[in-house]
Amino acid sequence: MTITVNGQKRDVQSSADTPLLYVLRNELDVMSPQFGCGLAQCGACSVLVDGKEVRSCVTPVSSATGKEVTTIEGLPARWAKQKGLSGADAEKTLHPVQQAWIEEQTPLCGYCQSGMMIKATELLEKTAKPSDSEIKAAFTTSGPSAHLCRCGSYYAIVEAVRLASTIMAGGAK
Amino acid sequence: MKNSVETTNILGAQLSRRGFVKAGGALFVGFTLLDSKNAQGAVAKNSLDPSQFQSWVEIHADNTVILHTGKCDFGQSSLYTAYRQIIADELEIPFESITAVIGGDTDRTPDGGGTFDLLGRGVMPLRKAAAYTREAMLELAAQRFGVAKDKLTIKAGVISGGGKTVTYGELVKDQNLKLSIPVAGDLTTMFGLTVEGDPPLKPVSKYEVIGKSYRNSVIPAKVTAKEKWVTDVKLSGMWHARIVHPATLGSKLITAGQVDKTKFPNAQVVVKGNLLGVVAPTEWEAIQASRQVAAATKWSEWKGLPGQPNLFRYFRQDADWKSTSVSRSQKSGGDAASAVASAKKKHSATYEMPFMKHAPIGPTMALADYKADGTVTVHTHNQNPQALRGQLALMLGVPVDQVIVRLYSGPGHYGRSNGGNAGAEDEAVLLSKELGRPVRVQWMRGEDFQWSTQSPAGYSDVQIGLDANNKISAYTIDHYMPAMQDDRPVGAILAGLPTMPAPTPGGQRLANTVNGNSDPWVYDGVLNLEERAHGTYEVGQRESPLGVGLRDHSMRTPGQFQQNFPREVALSEAAALAGADPIQFRLDHTKDERLTNILQRLRAESGWQTRSAPNPKASTTGNAPVRGQGVSVMFRSGSYWACAAQIAVTPASGAIAVEKITMVVDPGVVVNPLQLKRQVEGGSMMGTSIALYEQVEFDESGVTTKDWRSYPILKMADMPEIKVVIVNRPEVGVYGQGSEAANALAAPAIAAAFFDATGKPARNLPLRPDYVKTLLKA
Ligand code: FES
Ligand code: FES
Fold first, then answer.
1. Amino acid B173: pLDDT
2. Residue in A35, A37, A98 closest to B707 by CB
3. B322 Cβ neighbours under 8 A, 6+ residues apart
4. Is the CB of A111 under 6 A from ligand 1?
5. Is B444 an 8 Å CB contact of chain A?
6. Best of A23, A34, A55 for a ligand 1 pocket test (most atoms within 8 Å of beta carbon)
7. How far is CA B262 from the centre of its chain?
8. Per the omega criterion (within 30 degrees of 0), is the bond before B614 cis?
9. B212 touches chain A (CB under 8 A)
10. Which residue has the higher pLDDT, B259 or B123?
11. Phi, psi of B99 (to 5 degrees)
12. How far is the C-alpha of B646 from the C-alpha of A136, rounded, in Å?
């Protein structure tokens, strides 16, 4: 099997029914999605598949063949491509979602935050200027389950999504 | 190289120069152990060489500084912000000079101790070590300049005097210096080592780094997937394991299932007593094989728990509160019993709080590498790695220096592992030993709910008497809660290997059933006070053939939450009985200036309506939301807290929306306003979650809560608006702390707001719709 992860074609040896999460982490060394529940109930394992947030803990790797998988390792390149940034600029530019997450000091323990940033990216690619209620809905009702943060970083996430939206629109950090 | 050693005494610390080195040079701060009984224990167990890597502070020739601390980061950010700020100020160096903070690794840090009270007891060893180090630098400069030490000044790592200047880096360049400082304590206990002596600490008025909103240096790595998380550690030859835990909390293994080799050709079963592990080269095979083996395994049956619906009846009628000595609070005094009896008005009520879970967002995980020579290295995520080291050595029956614990970032545990284990560590070690290869154990979501410790349930009986002036004439409160701290590693128990003892009435510290009074009473205007805390065994502990009942462990504000909730809700109800505004009622019962100040700030900042509860518009029926306000306060670890909750209750559905939380905190010296604000916001979310949703379900055999549906927590759409007000009181002179207290304040404020909105008292948690509807019908 071959899957495309963060723009690269990768051969996969794992069995077809292996959840994408274990293939990414254990076979392909793509470590950002985390195991939280294995039940599609928390969002710690979220990745983008063709731009849509999916729960890699319950997604068999076979269903990702021929599709484009993006994790936060691939967010800077995704942004660079969308903005047509050249090599040197692309190298040093983080995705606006990452910039905003740093600027707002959003993560507490941070274990849930890879999934949170994936969700934010999905949202902002569809809705450039989300309202607060659109942000809350995206993280609560738009996917298989709400994205859960036990440390309680929700307020900081809303602030970071707002900032990321501003940065994406070309505004200052 | 010279071989001679020159030694200078610095306030009880020994500075020695062991010749010169060709390149680089550094000052390493190690320690000598004081000749006390405890300290000797630490030496025997750990064989530390103070001249080696167990340094606290390294100053390098390029003026960079590295800190070492046994504490860990769980998302509090303290290690990467507050610790650097406090030490930078104490060392008189810029914040940026501290290029790394090494936390937790038992072979690379000196002091141990649990990750709690971080800015108090936690940072003090490192802070004192830094103060000794600064004095040593002054001594070196004095020797170099030929100028008296007290004629020197330091600014940003540069010492000036007698017309000369020198940097810290220049002072250590080409030198092999070692500073030995006096230390006491026992490294592998809950509290670790302390630094002794009294090196001069920098006065608050001179702080330059403390008080500023520095960024958390670990966040960029976490946001760009560069951080190495515990879950990311891979060792060559490593296998994955899943544990098949017993069918109940009292089941013994009858027959272990066999692996179906046609499906899982590489998987193996490992059995040690009642510990059953399934291992395989890949994680997916281990998971699937463990499910197949679990289905084929037979366990004995056991029923010995009261079950959640009967819990409080069990506590009242069957639990043994008599064997454990009762703790009377320090502030108790007067004659509360007769004052209550003769009171004009009386409030009597019982308040109940369920078992709750720490519920880290990722289940416990550890990777152990047991070597043929009997040494073992454990890679994990834990709030007290040195204590874990001690527990593992005890389990294996080896000296503690054969165990190394390495720490990584991981999901927050909120106190669950501050006594040394979160769940998977001992199991990983036992499986690695059996297999002779590194083994990675991660619990599945269900096990993390069902086999981890929990925050103990409790209840309190309160009686408040009011006098003719509607002031409190007497307050009696009896708190009942099972043992709060059980640090026995569960895998070791299942395997039948040695552990520390289970909690008993006469047991050693941290293994007894005594329930202390953890919340200092702040209402000094109450003259007759009787506050008592009663303890008992953990539920099911003695009935279970395994000795495993509902094991408890401290969570955020351990015991204090269970005592503060009833105390504060009852106080709000007493205010209503007095016809008084609940903020004013509190102000009328205290002369404490800091408490008075934050209550006044809370009233001004929260949009508080000054009036008595219930709200004139209170209602128990209808589809239209009714609104209420409530207040709570807390004093913890030197910090004063006040919280206001504004809520809307929809009577017909029983739904509660927490619309706004305002939190005012006076921690004394504010170290980092931005990080404190983020911590308080987080704690407020968790506190709201506890108030509205959280309760561990269990039947007669074990915990039935098994996932995020059976243990719902707050979701983003349901979060309140949050306003955090930070009051800086540098003149207090201490860094109060305990941002985890934010967690405890929301529930009593929300319960009080419910009474305001509906006129019905809410005395039990959680305030789920079904319970709310029952209350409204009452
Ligand atoms: S780990 Fe996939 S949703 Fe929780
Ligand atoms: S930041 Fe810790 S779980 Fe979200």
1. 82
2. A37
3. none
4. no
5. yes
6. A55
7. 46
8. yes
9. no
10. B259
11. -90, -15
12. 20
**Contacts of B604 by beta carbon, 8 Å cutoff, 6+ apart:** none
First to last CA, chain A: 41
Reported as a pLDDT band with limits 50, 70 and 90, residue B60 is confident
The pLDDT value recorded for residue B740 is: 82
- Considering only CB atoms, B716 lies closest to which of A108, A136, A150, namely A136
A17 Cβ neighbours under 8 A, 6+ residues apart: A60, A61, A62, B284
Q: Which residue has the tokens 């997937």?
A: B225
User: What's the confidence (pLDDT) of residue B11?
Assistant: 65
Which amino acid is residue B706, in one-letter code? K
Residue in A with minimal Cα distance to B680: A152
B467 touches chain A (CB under 8 A): no
Asked if residues B351 and B460 have their Cβ atoms less than 8 Å apart, the reply is yes
Q: Confirm if B261 and B280 have CB atoms less than 8 A apart.
A: no
Q: How far apart are CA A108 and CA B675, in angstroms?
A: 9
- What pLDDT, in 10s, does the model give residues B172-223? 887 777 777 777 777 777 777 778 888 999 999 999 999 999 999 999 999 9
Instruction: Give DSSP secondary structure letters for B102-138.
Output: EES-TTT-S----S-SIIIIITHHHHHHHHHHHHHHH
User: Can you tell me the mean pLDDT for B327-339?
Assistant: 95
Nearest CA to ligand 2 atom 4: A149
Provide the sign of the torsion angle of the four alpha carbons B429, B431, B435, B440, taken in this order.
negative
User: Considering every ligand atom, which ligand is closest to the CA of A45?
Assistant: 1
Q: What is the pTM of this model?
A: 0.94
Environment class of B44 (CB within 10 Å of its CB; exposed 0-12, middle 13-18, buried 19+): exposed
The alpha carbon dihedral of A86, A90, A95, A99 has a sign of negative
Q: Which CATH architecture has domain A74-168?
A: Orthogonal Bundle (1.10)
User: How is B653-701 classified by DSSP, letter by letter?
Assistant: TTEEEEEEEEEEEE-BS-S-HHHHHHHHHHHHHHHHHHHHT----B-SS
Domain ranges of chain A: 2-72, 74-168
What domains can you pick out in chain B, each with its CATH number?
3-223 (3.30.365.10), 230-302+364-442 (3.30.365.10), 308-357+453-536 (3.30.365), 564-777 (3.30.365.10)
The answer, yes or no, to whether ipTM is higher than 0.90 is yes
Inter-chain contact A154–B716, Cβ cutoff 8 Å? yes
Distance CA B55, CA B101 (A): 12
Q: Classify domain A2-72 at the CATH superfamily level.
A: Beta-grasp domain (3.10.20.30)
Residue B729 has pLDDT above 70, yes or no: yes
Cα A61 to chain centroid distance, Å, stands at 17
Cβ pair B362:A101 closer than 8 A: no
Q: What tokens does B670 get?
A: 């504010």
A81 CB neighbour count, 10 Å cutoff: 12
SS3 of B277, please?
strand
Which of B222, B449, B663 should one mutate to test binding to chain A, selecting the residue with the greatest count of A CBs within 10 A?
A: B222
